Amino acid sequence: MMNYKTEMNNASQFINQQGSTWNAINPEYIARMRLQNRFKTGLDIANYTAKIMREDMQSYDENSDNYTQSLGCWHGFIGQQKMISIKKHFTTTKGTYLYLSGWMVAAMRSEFGPLPDQSMHEKTSVPMLIEELYTFLKQADARELNHLFNELETAQSSGDQVAERAVQKQIDEFETHVVPIIADIDAGFGNEEATYLLAKKMIEAGACCIQIENQVSDAKQCGHQDGKVTVPHEDFLAKINAVRYAFMELGVEDGIIVARTDSLGAGLTQKIPVSQYEGDLAEQYNAYIDGEKVNSLSDINSGDMVLSRGGEIIKPTRLANGLVRFKPNTGEDRVVLDCITSLQHGADLLWIETETPNIEQIAGMVNRIREVVPNAKLVYNNSPSFNWTLNFRQQVFDTWEKEGKDTSAYQRSSLMAVNYDGTELAKEADMRIQNFQKDASKHAGIFHHLITLPTYHTAALSTDNLAKEYFGVRAMLAYVENVQRQEIRQSLASVKHQDMSGSNIGDDHKEYFSGDQALKASGENNTMSQFS
Questions:
Q1: Catalytic residue among 73, 208, 222, 339
Q2: 222 annotated active-site
Q3: Where do the H-state alpha helices sit in 120-228?
Q4: 384-430: per-residue pLDDT in tens?
Q5: CA angle, 247 as apex, 74 and 186 as ends, to 5°?
Q6: What is the C-alpha to C-alpha distance for residues 14 and 25, in angstroms, rounded to an integer?
């Protein structure tokens, strides 16, 4: 923690050593600028936030109520406004992170335009967004501290020592908006060397936590789409090693790796690994390969491959593109093996991509993992790809049926219908949704809850509502009533958009640099004063 007076005294001593040529430099202004920019590099941020995550992980191990949360952000301004809001409403950023979604980078940040989540976007877009997010978070620090410095000046000029001490305390105990980012590296954008190089760029931009998945890099699919193809464990572990080497090379020894498995929804593998000895990972992986038993050489056709497994010869089931099928109904077993293997080889956290948000299903897999790794913890995707309303209404419906409760008033396949909204079943489902994070953290080992692309949907919804009314009969009233008036009523800092974009900070800097000659933007003709 940086102390205002200490920084000012240190600056003053150094300036005095320079002689009269530095007389124009004010040590108090230097102290302010240093406090407004406490993180000089992305590696400073990565080290700072990695320690926060490590402490949070330990706190969760001690008490599952201490889970953490984040929202996916596709632009620095969105991340900034999220953290400003959290500080305003909850007074602290503790337990809150940002999530950088590969899906949103593909859909919203690629020079190619909107793309599907298939690792087709520029890999450099990912570290660039990390840097952008932290630039905006640091600017939020500078803006809030700038206001405190102005309050300090007001207290000093009025001789109010009580107010001066109070503001001084706020400055010295200031909590930064800079929080950990869990950053999605997809499947590594190539081989293990490509993964290492990209991981370094992400860490240098500030990432303390990198999430990597076990899909094939050049056939990567969104976790909630069909056609997913996984790689053998050896290939995935090589990429986990690559990320760890990147962290260690750059001095971020507390860096966190999230190993994501898509095996629950992946029915295909890229290749059959070569087993070196009985019971190794390759043999365990190959045990799940689907195939037809070979009884004689006549069963083998041109182009077929064969696999010796468990004392018999099988002909693996292959698609026309050469990909190999897994046995049906082996997804959960493969997930458990993936997770145990990843944790035993350097991963810190797990991510299990599921098809629905079902605590019982998640807990079943986590409990099996914890039989081998007792402190296994999950990062879980509270995905917008789930129809939360329908899923939980159907879960309640199924529970009631098992309990023998009368469900004749409900049609299971139509529970999304609006006419069910006020029913007892709908209320019970909403309660389960509200408690999902708490209950899943307690019963299913979920340390971190994130929503991958919430701000994609909120931007679409708010824009649709504004456009519908602004271009309709309500015209300007649509903006005034639903946006600006609400910003004022709810004390959103963004209503003063000039201040939010750094206008006041710039004015103060001009005064630092030019003194009374400074041409400032915050004069009496600045319309922002209407929102005072």
A1: 222
A2: yes
A3: 125-158, 161-172, 192-205
A4: 989 999 999 999 999 999 999 999 999 999 999 999 999 999 999 99
A5: 40
A6: 11
